[in-house]
Amino acid sequence: MPAARLIFLGPPGSGKGTQAQRLASRLGLVQLSSGDVLRKERQEGSAIGRQAASYMDAGTLVPDDVITGVMLSGIDRLQAGVGFILDGFPRTVAQAEALEAGLRQRQLKITTVLDFRLADEEIINRIIGRRVCKACAATYNVSFLPPKVAGKCDKCGGELFQRKDDSREVISTRLETYRDQTAPLIDFYSRRGQFHSVDAALGADAVEAAVLRVVEVASRC
Ligand code: AP5
C-alpha cells in the first residue's frame, strides 16, 4: 500500500487517539497527536508547553500559529516516504489552510480524512473513564477498555493517570469549542473529496475494521 497520510477529525473522546495508535502499529504509520505533543512540551517545561498550559486546562484551543508550527515540524522530522496520521490536527479552518499550504510546499498531500462521529452523552462517559499511560501515552478506559492490571499499562507497565482536562466542567467547554471551531472542518474537507465518516459508537475492534476498510479502499483510488 502506498504511504497513507491521514487526518483523524472528530469531537474530543470520540476515539481518534485509540484508533490512531492501532492503525499506526498495524500499517507502520507514524501517529502525530497534537494533544500528546503539547502534553510532552508541558512535561518538559518548554516555552510552547508553558504557553499551551492555560488553554489546555480550560478546554480551549492553543493559538493556531503555535500548533501549526509544532505539527509541521513533526512532519519534517519523519523519514521521507513514511506515512502519518494527524490526530487532533487541524482543529480550525485557519489550521487546515495552513496545513494545506505547508504540505504543498513539501510536495505532500493528505490521502484521506476520517471523521469520527459520536453523541455527546457517550463522549462524556468515555472521557470520564479514560486513563492514559504516563510513559507511552497508551489509552485505556476503566469501563470499556480496561488494562489487564488496574492502574498499569499493558504495553510498558507505566503508571496510568487521569488527564486534568477530563473533568465534567472542562468537557463541556471542549465540546463547545469543538462545535464552534472544529465542526466547520467537516464542510471544508467534504468539499475536497477523500472524506469519510466513521460510526465511532461501535466497539473499538469494529471501529478499527471500518477505519481499515476506508484506508484500504482509498489507497486503491
Ligand atoms: P487532545 O489531546 O487532542 O484532546 P481531544 O481532541 O479533546 O481528544 P481526546 O484525546 O480527548 O480524545 P480522542 O478522540 O483521542 O479519544 P480517545 O481515543 O482517547 O487535545 C487536548 C487539548 O490540547 C485541547 O483541548 C487543546 O487545548 C489542545 N490542542 C490539541 N490539538 C490542538 C489543535 N490542533 N489546535 C489547538 N489546540 C489543540 O478515547 C477516549 C476514551 O474512550 C478512552 O478512554 C478510550 O479508551 C475509550 N474508547 C475509545 N474507543 C472506544 C470505543 N470504540 N468504545 C468504547 N470506548 C472507547
Secondary-structure topology with pairs:
Elements: E1 5-9, H1 16-27, E2 30-33, H2 34-44, H3 47-58, H4 64-76, E3 84-87, H5 93-105, E4 112-117, H6 120-128, E5 130-133, E6 139-141, E7 160-161, H7 168-182, H8 184-190, E8 195-199, H9 204-220
Parallel strand pairs: 1-3, 1-4, 2-3, 4-8
Antiparallel strand pairs: 5-6, 5-7
Helix pairs in contact: 1-9, 2-3, 4-5
The structure holds BIS(adenosine)-5'-pentaphosphate (AP5).
Can you describe what's shown?
This protein has nine helices and eight strands. It is of the alpha/beta class. The strands form two sheets. It has a five-stranded parallel β-sheet, sandwiched between helices. It has a three-stranded antiparallel β-sheet with strand order 6-5-7. It is globular, with a radius of gyration of 17 Å. Bound molecules: BIS(adenosine)-5'-pentaphosphate (AP5).
Keywords:
about 220 residues; alpha/beta; Rossmann fold; five-stranded parallel beta sheet; three-stranded antiparallel beta sheet; globular; binds BIS(adenosine)-5'-pentaphosphate
Q: What is the CATH topology classification name?
A: Rossmann fold
Query: What's the SSE pattern?
Result: EHEHHHEHEHEEEHHEH
Q: What is the CATH domain class?
A: Alpha Beta
Shape: globular
Strand order of the largest sheet: 2-3-1-4-8
Low-confidence stretches: none
Helix content: 40-55%
Characterize the largest beta sheet: strand count, sense, and whether it forms a barrel. 5 strands, parallel
The name of the CATH superfamily reads P-loop containing nucleotide triphosphate hydrolases
Which structural class fits the helix and strand makeup? alpha/beta
